[in-house]
Amino acid sequence: MALKYLPSYTMSMSFLVVFLGGLRVQAQDQSGFISIDCGAPADVNYTEPKTGINYISDANFVNTGVSGTIIPETINTVYQRQMMNVRSFPEGKRNCYRINITRGSTYLIRTNFLYGNYDGLNRAPQFDIHLGVNRWYTVNIGNASTPQVNEIIHVPSLDYLHICLVDTGHGTPFISAIELRTLKSDTYVTQFGSLEYHNRWDLGSNNSYRYDVDVYDRFWYSYGDNKDWKQISASIAADSFDQNHYKPPEIVLSTAVTPVNATAPLVISWEPQNPTELYYVYMHFTEIEVLPKNQTREFNITQNGKPWYQNLSPMHQSINTIYSRSGINGEKIEYSLEKTKNSSLPPIINAIEIYKVINFHQTDTHQGDVDALTTIKSVYGVTRDWQGDPCAPVAYSWDGLNCSYRGTENPRITSLNLSSSELSGTIDPTIANLIMLEKLDLSNNNLYGEVPDFLSRLQHLKMINLENNNLTGSIPSALVQKSKEGFLSLSVGQNPYLCESGQCNEKRKNKKNIVTLLLASVCGGLILLVAVAAVSWTLIKRKPNDLTVDQREMTPQCTEQDDSLHQFKKQLYSYSDVVRITNNFNTIVGKGGFGTVYLGYIGDTPVAVKMLSPSSVRGYQQFQAEVKLLMRVHHTNLTSLVGYCNDRDYKGLIYEYMANGDLQEHLSGKHNKSKFLNWEDRLRIAVDAALGLEYLQTGCKPPIIHRDVKSTNILLDEKFQAKLSDFGLSKIFPIDEETHVSTVVAGTPGYLDPDYYISNRLTHKSDVYSFGVVLLEIITSQPVIARNEERTHIIQWVGSLIANGDINAIVDSRLEGDFDINSAWKAVEIAMACVSLNPSERPMMRMIVTELKETLATELTRTKLIDPDIRRDSVEPVTFNLDTELTPLASIVPPELATGHMNMSKMGYTL
Ligand SMILES: *[C@@H]1O[C@H](CO)[C@@H](O)[C@H](O)[C@H]1NC(C)=O
Ligand SMILES: *[C@@H]1O[C@H](CO)[C@@H](O)[C@H](O)[C@H]1NC(C)=O
Ligand SMILES: *[C@@H]1O[C@H](CO)[C@@H](O)[C@H](O)[C@H]1NC(C)=O
Ligand SMILES: *[C@@H]1O[C@H](CO)[C@@H](O)[C@H](O)[C@H]1NC(C)=O
Ligand SMILES: *[C@@H]1O[C@H](CO)[C@@H](O)[C@H](O)[C@H]1NC(C)=O
Ligand SMILES: *[C@@H]1O[C@H](CO)[C@@H](O)[C@H](O)[C@H]1NC(C)=O
Ligand SMILES: *[C@@H]1O[C@H](CO)[C@@H](O)[C@H](O)[C@H]1NC(C)=O
Ligand SMILES: *[C@@H]1O[C@H](CO)[C@@H](O)[C@H](O)[C@H]1NC(C)=O
């Protein structure tokens, strides 16, 4: 009964006319929608009558391109209004739309193209579409009268989205409409990558639907005839129907298919173009008939012949969505729905969605650099064709820029050339934000005012050219000094009113005295050589600490959180205050890599005072600056910094006090006051810690990399709520302290990302790795590095046990099996994904949070407790409806683990 899907993932678009708008009683909310009619006149804003969707002109989203209208005679159908105009881009290689969105939300993004011979050339073009800095797909218009539509489910990482049309030399790019829809954020979650539309079928129906039948405006297509299937349908009363987060429309669910031969399986299969392509599948089921008492419908689902989900009995007036938790690939992908022995009725399926994973690898330019350039562009009204991302992809980087590209890091701007660009005004301070700048050329413009001192603070700057402007005053002595020492080539000629410091008076009279500080003499050359040697030596010596330097450039701005600790009005404490607060350092509550921690009281509130060893901390100013930044970071799952001491050599940090110490104490059970953590406690702690880390990564801009996630850095308050501590501290410590370099920059042995040894860089994925190790500790209560002779690493240890399929051997034996098996397998699976050797295979924190919450929910269903989002100390329990969205993992053993096909090479066993 196999059927083959169309190999192409371009949608057939006859639907634009046949789409049923539905029985619109009142217009649905379009709050998460952005619907753009490209090429429409600037102030256009209308409601398309068939769908009720509100479209606006693209004028506010793009600065280039020309409007056009399709020629009605070339098309043989009447399309909706948004398809009638186009914007085309005859000029420039890359033209971009910039659309403001909410970073971190899940979007369905759709681009629409109808050529309609708008240019009268009768030559349908081919061009590329980029989503941000990554190529998304190639538009290849085969037929002037057939629209092409592409769709992707994507979580943008910036506050705006660039959709760029790239001219690849096969005709002028154009676009008809862009549609963005916000989806619920815990739906369509992948381990990595975005989901490109492959198919979405309303099975058993002869109609196709979109908004406002579908609140998310997904397109549902009729599957059409299949001789092995029988269509069945019944009406579903929307008001008594129990929806889930995926919200497939009731009309779509009211039809289904079932095998004609009641004992045969129902098979859905396709052959991917490329067997390495990964697919995600979402199947929606509902029982559309009220079954008599003596009838049952129950079936198993297999995926490529292996059990995927067992004993499914779709519910009446409610929905089961069964979806992939990881991608599936192969020469052929086949799902088979087979009736179980007990079932009197054949299987049914109401709707199915199939997506293909697209993994975008290219990273955006460093956000600080982008912001700086955006400001510079607007301050000077730069007229160059600066669109999309400044550095990426390399082939389309902005004119006048050079960037550095290092592995998976964000590209940085190393050179800015705005020579002869008709700039006028003073030298803008924003330039100082381009921290990695090595060359700056502002020559041949009309700049006036002084040469600003901030230029001397750009540490990497090797060349400044300010020739032929009208700058005045004296050149900052720091620049002159650097130049004399051979660190900087400074050209300031043809600025008649400019003089070197201290010589300004003579200068006025002697116009010829043009200052050029390029080193030319033999003597200068010698100095240069020495200087170069000195620089290289310093670089070698300081290599690991470049990290620290990089971090310092960023000013984290984190999304607002409730600040429950506002009670501390004062933030800066003197040494004598600290002596008083700690009662002369009476009670030691901990010792860490950074110094000793004392118990203290501010008023009646207990605090933890961490005194830093005086020699190890950066200078007064830097310390103050970093601490003030950290003080702005607030989240329930991060220990709050409430004050600090910066009194001569005494430097200390004052944190909220965490009554129950650190996680490791409790896991090891070594301390007499430690509490035995049951499975639920452990999962809650894991969720808390994951939320803290997720916030550092996505709530802060630029993201804060913790660098030292470990179980002793997860602290527990009096309610055993977990908070991450010690984040951001690496920035406080100076470069040269050998001892601290190893603990601060390079994390802690056992938790350290193995990729660090290759790349020499710690990234947010390194934190994910360390978190995976912590999760394994939480599950097993084993030490990270065994105290046996082999010094077995916990990852190795767990890995060897997974193969045996015995979860009880993995989970802490002191739990005596008192945990949900599925929940435990899933936790193990999450942890093992986090510790993948290849950083790009480690899941995003967002995914980890979602999965851990599911794991907790599974455990709570067992213990009859309720919603994972409701903390145990809150008042009203709420019923958590786990039944409506099932993952195949609800079977006894996770399929990936049961089949013995786990790819061991993907895991970080080697350490
Ligand atoms: C378009 O018009 C609708 C209804 O008049 C209004 O609610 C909406 O804000 C307008 N949109 C824009 C972008 O002007
Ligand atoms: C997008 O956001 C930026 C910065 O917040 C703002 O300046 C711009 O006007 C916004 N664009 C549109 C089309 O709303
Ligand atoms: C283009 O598609 C239309 C149907 O949408 C069809 O009638 C026409 O023959 C096609 N033209 C070509 C050249 O394939
Ligand atoms: C769909 O069309 C086929 C024949 O064209 C018809 O037999 C069938 O009943 C229709 N199904 C529905 C649900 O209307
Ligand atoms: C129905 O399916 C069963 C199981 O696949 C098969 O054995 C039987 O021959 C089929 N009957 C017909 C009439 O095709
Ligand atoms: C179920 O019961 C009904 C009467 O209540 C009877 O007509 C029907 O044949 C029974 N079906 C089966 C499969 O036993
Ligand atoms: C369906 O799954 C159950 C549970 O694993 C199994 O016992 C049964 O044999 C399966 N039935 C079929 C028809 O594969
Ligand atoms: C250059 O600056 C001087 C002093 O500020 C001013 O008098 C002069 O007009 C400026 N020249 C030009 C060409 O702008």
TrEMBL record:
<dbReference type="InterPro" id="IPR001245">
    <property type="entry name" value="Ser-Thr/Tyr_kinase_cat_dom"/>
</dbReference>
<dbReference type="Pfam" id="PF07714">
    <property type="entry name" value="PK_Tyr_Ser-Thr"/>
</dbReference>
<dbReference type="InterPro" id="IPR024788">
    <property type="entry name" value="Malectin-like_Carb-bd_dom"/>
</dbReference>
<dbReference type="GO" id="GO:0016020">
    <property type="term" value="C:membrane"/>
</dbReference>
<keyword id="KW-1133">Transmembrane helix</keyword>
<keyword id="KW-0675">Receptor</keyword>
<dbReference type="InterPro" id="IPR008271">
    <property type="entry name" value="Ser/Thr_kinase_AS"/>
</dbReference>
<dbReference type="InterPro" id="IPR017441">
    <property type="entry name" value="Protein_kinase_ATP_BS"/>
</dbReference>
<keyword id="KW-0723">Serine/threonine-protein kinase</keyword>
<protein>
    <recommendedName>
        <fullName>non-specific serine/threonine protein kinase</fullName>
        <ecNumber>2.7.11.1</ecNumber>
    </recommendedName>
</protein>
<feature type="signal peptide">
    <location>
        <begin position="1"/>
        <end position="27"/>
    </location>
</feature>
<keyword id="KW-0812">Transmembrane</keyword>
<keyword id="KW-0418">Kinase</keyword>
<keyword id="KW-0732">Signal</keyword>
<keyword id="KW-0808">Transferase</keyword>
<dbReference type="Pfam" id="PF12819">
    <property type="entry name" value="Malectin_like"/>
</dbReference>
<keyword id="KW-0677">Repeat</keyword>
<dbReference type="InterPro" id="IPR011009">
    <property type="entry name" value="Kinase-like_dom_sf"/>
</dbReference>
<feature type="domain" description="Protein kinase">
    <location>
        <begin position="583"/>
        <end position="856"/>
    </location>
</feature>
<dbReference type="InterPro" id="IPR000719">
    <property type="entry name" value="Prot_kinase_dom"/>
</dbReference>
<feature type="binding site">
    <location>
        <position position="610"/>
    </location>
    <ligand>
        <name>ATP</name>
    </ligand>
</feature>
<feature type="transmembrane region" description="Helical">
    <location>
        <begin position="514"/>
        <end position="540"/>
    </location>
</feature>
<keyword id="KW-0067">ATP-binding</keyword>
<dbReference type="InterPro" id="IPR001611">
    <property type="entry name" value="Leu-rich_rpt"/>
</dbReference>
<dbReference type="Pfam" id="PF00560">
    <property type="entry name" value="LRR_1"/>
</dbReference>
<keyword id="KW-0547">Nucleotide-binding</keyword>
<dbReference type="GO" id="GO:0004674">
    <property type="term" value="F:protein serine/threonine kinase activity"/>
</dbReference>
<dbReference type="InterPro" id="IPR032675">
    <property type="entry name" value="LRR_dom_sf"/>
</dbReference>
<keyword id="KW-0597">Phosphoprotein</keyword>
<dbReference type="GO" id="GO:0005524">
    <property type="term" value="F:ATP binding"/>
</dbReference>
<keyword id="KW-0433">Leucine-rich repeat</keyword>
<keyword id="KW-0472">Membrane</keyword>
